[in-house]
Amino acid sequence: MNKEFKMVFVLTLVIVIAGGILAYTYVATQRDIEKNLENAKKKALLAVVNGTSDYQEVKINDHASIFAAKDAQGNVIGYGVMIEGAGFQGPIKVMVGFNNDGSEVLGIEILENVETPGLGNRIVEDWFKKQFAGKTPPIEVLKGKTPETKSQIQAITGATISSRSVANIVNAAAQALRNYLSGAGGASTEKDLQTSFANCFPNAKLEKAGNYYLIKGKENTLIGYGVISKALGYSDTISILLAMDKDLKKILGIIPLAGEVMSERTKFDGFLKSLINKAVPLKLSDLDVASGATVTQDAIVSAINNGYENLKKEIK
Amino acid sequence: MAPNKRSLGYEFIKGLFKENPVLVQLLGLCSVLAVSNAVINSISMGLSVLFVLFFSSFVIALIKDFVPNEVRIPVYIIVIATFVTIADLFLRAKFPDISKALGPYIPLIVVNCIIMGRQEAFTKKNKLLPSIMDALGMSLGYILTIVTMGIIRELLGFGSIFGYKILGSWYKPILVMILPPGAFLTLALLIGFMNFVTKKE
């Protein structure tokens, strides 16, 4: 009995002490570790988008982030997309710089790779990376031929797969940025839309009219307009139906369609209701923003304002 | 075999050649093969092993009398894992590039047989001072081997040492030396050389 107690006691004591020491070391080093990660990102972004002095990071998913690169005056001068994709031997992580509308690659930087040293690993060499600057994605890899168009690069001799992997990753980055800029993703079907609409406005109906919707009441009188609008939220793209009165002065309602506004609907219900009858464009400072979900609420507000702008253009 | 009667100097020196952990005992080969493709990686790995082995032996020598025999292995592992984690966090905080190059091999020091092996084979049966000398000797033996491998592989595979070009442009790097086969070849030649020398004595 005594011996068993001693076993348990000693083992517990050792674990508690070790745990304490580790907790202390973790806290003491964590700030530096995070700073290093942040610095690595910043350095890569500076290398691919010239003149960046500040940036804003938007996480797309676990393997991709988009950085809006800003100059000293705060203007967006380009985008960096940090994205991971498959290489020959393992994942390759690349920072790809794009111009303002995502149509041209400014430069690339290889952050992580485990390609074969001396062969695939040559993707980190300057001459290879520089080939991407000024190119228009999707980029095609040529083997042993000199590139002729603005969408071609030359493969590294003996490392065609690694070269192609980098090009694929750059193309994926271009796609991710395009999705981000156009707010695509989180699509919902027409039927879902009608159902959600009917739940919110039982006495009205929604009629598609090109890129927007007409909201009609009894006897087909026009009550207002609707438009689907998207924006990048905290974890994914959110999509809403913005319903406005027929003078486009105030909000009739906001129907969540996809993204976190939909999946965590109860959390944002109060916020969405508080926006009814508000005048657009909304200003964030005038709103009652709940703490803890500001990114999503920012996204909702920008989706509403964008939707309003689009609607205004369509109806005129 | 009465290890207590040997001098402290012997406990230290034996790890360098006579009982070299890598070339004679053939322990901890995984990390030696994996990270010895550049001198700087070899040195960082070697120093990490030195740190972990030294402090593990130190702590285990101090507490071994209180630890019941039945739970000694879990206690050793906890002590070793603690120091390995400290080394890993320290490298990640202060030397991020080296940490990235060594990748998973730092956390894997936990299962490096040299460290566990020394605790079972030596520290368990000896006092504090001989244990520390043994740990230092074994670590230096490990460092000596992994750095030698790093020098040979980096020189032949890249034509450089510490990343500085040593061999001129006339030299065409032997790529295989920095790939896994190069690690096995170099290690085999070093072990062969070691056997050749000890046989002569």
UniProtKB/TrEMBL annotation, chain B:
Keywords from the named record: Cell membrane, Electron transport, Membrane, Translocase, Transmembrane, Transmembrane helix, Transport
Transmembrane spans: 46-63, 75-95, 101-118, 139-162, 174-197
Pfam families cross-referenced by the UniProt entry: Rnf-Nqr
GO biological process annotation, one example: electron transport chain
InterPro entries membership: NqrDE/RnfAE (IPR003667), RnfE (IPR010968)
Keyword Membrane: yes
Membrane topology note: Multi-pass membrane protein
Function: Part of a membrane-bound complex that couples electron transfer with translocation of ions across the membrane.
Subunit structure: The complex is composed of six subunits: RnfA, RnfB, RnfC, RnfD, RnfE and RnfG.
Protein name as annotated: Ion-translocating oxidoreductase complex subunit E
Protein source organism: candidate division CPR3 bacterium
Gene of this entry: rnfE
